[in-house]
Design goal:
Elements lengths: L1 H14 L3 H5 L6 E3 L7 E4 L16 E6 L6 H16 L15 H16 L16 H14 L4 H7 L8 H5 L5 H10 L5 E2 L11 H7 L2 H6 L2 H16 L3
Antiparallel strand pairs: 1-2, 2-3, 3-4
């Protein structure tokens, strides 16, 4: 439960996503970022609720975080390596918790775990936050956090896959705008972004890490994804905390 919840909540905040949409995320929509493959990967979620358009949903960047509690790459690396090892490489959904191949069940599992965490008595300060404190509130938090970090409304709307009503630019502008998307992704990261990389002259290669650290991820995804996630997971393995 810890690996699953850590991955899905970090992903939800980073993507400013609905938990319903995160639950539907399929494995083939986690992609190699050919432009910046040394430190990032790409993800694709469906458009936000009530958005009707024939345009493809954007390809969006996922970056590492200096604070491991906010690092979506670290969360995904840990979870997917466990997931593929436990349930095989055939799973359609990224967040297939306990073999749940139905998005509705995945969403319910995420909701139940968060409610149990909030009811545990370890989060006294949560009562200072008004409004919904469930998975829906995470999206509100992420959007508000990005705006407080001085991200433009248009940029945060792009990251959250919202589109304006009746605006001509939304009809003709490409849905994938890497620079605007990356700005908001970075703003949502506490303590700044991080680049996981192999130390020079260490004698360790990318191939060695993929083979020994993430053999399960390597069996399911292309090398571009495996390399980025393997370096994040290797850092976690040797982190004293």
């Amino acid at each position: 439960a810890r690996y699953f919840s850590s991955a899905v909540y970090k992903f939800q905040v980073s993507m400013i996503g609905r938990i319903d949409d995160c639950a539907k995320k399929t494995s083939d929509n986690l992609m190699h970022n050919f432009q910046h493959d040394e430190y990032s990967i790409l993800a694709r979620l469906c458009w936000s609720k009530k958005i009707r358009t024939e345009a493809d949903a954007p390809d969006q960047v996922l970056l590492g975080a200096s604070d491991p509690h906010y690092c979506v790459l670290l969360g995904l690396a840990t979870w997917i390596e466990f997931l593929v090892g436990a349930y095989g490489a055939e799973s359609e959904f990224v967040f297939n918790y306990r073999g749940a191949e139905q998005p509705v069940i995945i969403k319910e599992n995420a909701d139940k775990i968060l409610k149990a965490i909030l009811a545990s008595g370890k989060f006294e300060l949560v009562e200072l936050v008004t409004g919904n404190k469930g998975t829906h509130g995470m999206r509100k938090f992420a959007q508000t956090f990005a705006r407080h970090a001085r991200c433009r409304k248009d940029d945060t709307d792009l990251r959250a896959r919202w589109r304006g009503k009746g605006r001509q630019q939304d009809t003709y502008t490409d849905s994938t705008l890497p620079y605007s998307d990356a700005k908001v992704c970075a703003a949502l990261i506490k303590a700044g972004t991080v680049h996981y990389k192999i130390r020079e002259n260490s004698g360790i290669t990318e191939e060695w890490i993929c083979h020994h650290v993430v053999p399960n991820i390597r069996s399911k995804y292309f090398s571009g994804i495996s390399v980025v996630l393997s370096q994040a997971l290797l850092w976690r393995i040797f982190d004293e905390k």
